[in-house]
Design brief:
With 302 residues, the chain is α+β, with helices and mostly antiparallel strands. The protein has helices at 2-18, 209-225, 243-263; strands spanning 26-27, 30-40, 48-56, 59-60, 64-73, 78-86, 88-89, 94-106, 120-130, 136-145, 156-169, 195-199, 231-235, 271-275, 296-301. The protein is built from 3 helices and 15 strands. Helix 2 crosses helix 3 (243-263).
Length: 302
């Protein structure tokens, strides 16, 4: 009875996650299949290896996602589970990935985790390096226990290496409508520039000294122009890497410029953010070309 209730509850929860309304879910990331190979009961020398295979869809609510998977050990233990995960980017390539899931565990000839038909909870954290093509290589550690639902709660830890392989996906849609072109000058008298270009190093979203100087000039222009000034900040990349990765990278570049503008005194409400990834190249190139002038953020005054 408990097992049937657990299965029904898990299925209902995963179905709810999978059918998030369009306003809450964004297909802005890659679907991935993740393989984990680890040591089961690693802190107690359980002498058993574990193998996990997971599906990690591209649905995102902010940086939260969902996943489902299964585990088997060399001593015939089995576990199926589903849960939520979170991508926390430390840099453009390194990220920390905590996750939590609930599922059902059958011990086979391996460690007994419950003496009744109770749920088992799988929680853990990993670190990974994401390559330009969307592949991720990393390591994680997880704890599985019944969280005190049974009369005994021995628990188990698993340390594993992870490999996430992109299956399919597409870049996110632009975060806002296309900005209108800058209006023509109202008078022939010379005026300060209406467009500023901020350039970035390859595969980076942090600001160089030159970039900070240009943003400072733009903030000064905004203060002179008055409180009705509106700015559009549009991030771009070169053509190296996947569409999905470059869309996220261009978004981070635009956010870096926005943060610096706010630091320099521009009200956040006057700044609109856009991300275009590999689209609208300043210098047209084939795919896979490291063109410095395409790695940019454009600041436009309206």
């Amino acid at each position: 009875m408990k097992l049937r209730g657990l299965v029904l509850a898990s299925a209902a929860a995963f179905t709810a996650w999978a059918t998030l309304p369009a306003g809450f879910a964004r297909a802005d990331d890659l679907w991935r299949s993740q393989l984990e190979v680890g040591s089961f009961d690693v802190f107690h020398k359980g002498d058993s290896a574990s193998f996990d295979l997971q599906l990690r869809p591209g649905w995102r609510l902010w940086n939260f996602g969902v996943f489902a998977g299964g585990m088997v050990t060399t001593k015939e233990a089995l576990m199926g589970y589903a849960g939520v995960t979170f991508d926390l980017h430390l840099t453009d390539n390194f990220l920390i990935i905590p996750d939590a899931a609930v599922g059902y565990y059958s011990h086979g000839n391996d460690k007994v985790l419950s003496f009744g038909s109770t749920a088992e909870f799988r929680t853990g954290v990993g670190i990974a390096y994401e390559f330009d093509n969307g592949w991720r290589l990393g390591a994680d550690i997880h704890h599985i226990s019944n969280a005190g639902l049974d009369k005994k709660n021995p628990g188990v830890e698993i340390a594993a290496l992870t490999l996430a392989i992109p299956l399919f996906g597409k870049p996110a849609a632009e975060v806002a409508a296309e900005p209108p072109p800058p209006p023509p000058a109202a008078s022939p008298a010379p005026a300060m520039a209406l467009n500023y270009l901020v350039f970035f190093d390859f595969n980076k979203s942090d600001l160089t000294t030159d970039a900070q100087r240009i943003i400072k000039d733009a903030a000064t222009h905004a203060s002179v122009s008055g409180p009705t000034t509106k700015l559009t900040v549009t991030g771009h990349t070169d053509t190296v890497g996947s569409d999905a990765y470059n869309m996220r990278l261009s978004q981070r570049r635009a956010m870096s410029v926005q943060k610096e503008l706010v630091h320099d005194g521009v009200p956040a409400g006057e700044i609109a953010i856009f991300a275009k990834g590999k689209r609208d190249l300043l210098v047209p190139t084939p795919d896979g070309v490291k063109e410095p002038q395409n790695r940019r953020v454009q600041i436009v005054f309206e």
